[in-house]
Amino acid sequence: MKRIIFTEKAPRPVGPYSQAVEHNGVLYIAGQIPLNPETSQLVEGGVAEQTEQVMKNIAAILDEAGYTFSDVLKSTCLLADMADFKAMNEIYGRYYPENSPARVAFAVKQLPLGALVEIETVAAK
Predict the structure, then answer these.
(1) Could you tell me if 58 and 118 are in contact, meaning their C-beta atoms sit under 8 angstroms apart?
(2) Which H or E run contains 91?
(3) Cβ density class 106-115: b for 16+ within 10 Å, e for less
(4) What is the pLDDT of residues 65-121, one digit of tens each?
(5) Which of 4, 7, 43, 114 is 20 to 30 Å from 59 at the Cα level?
(6) Does the predicted model carry a pTM greater than 0.90?
(7) Strand partners, 39
(8) Helix or strand or coil: residue 86?
(9) Domain 2-124, what fold?
(10) How much is the average pLDDT of 57-71?
(11) DSSP code, position 32
């Protein structure tokens, strides 16, 4: 059975998609960009500050669905510039101090609303 996940503690979707969908014990979190959920604006600063906000948004969605970062199986990290990989990776790694999920990271031409980073997440129980 498909369950739509929504929390006010993460940004509202900027298009026709859900924050997350759970199906058969697998949680699919839509790509999160660094929007402050209270203002719906991009956070100020560089990729480190933006990655921190993205991870906070993911944490809020995981929590709403009853999951934690230890349940995450895979992440897809999209960057506006691969030169930001090291800074993104440092912040991202703080959320996975051990047993990190599988991951792919690559640069794209442009991200929504001019974001520097977007991260999609899959978790399972």
Answers:
(1) no
(2) helix 85-94
(3) eeeeebeeeb
(4) 999 999 999 999 999 999 999 999 999 999 999 999 999 999 999 999 999 999 999
(5) 114
(6) yes
(7) none
(8) helix
(9) 60s Ribosomal Protein L30; Chain: A; (3.30.1330)
(10) 98
(11) E
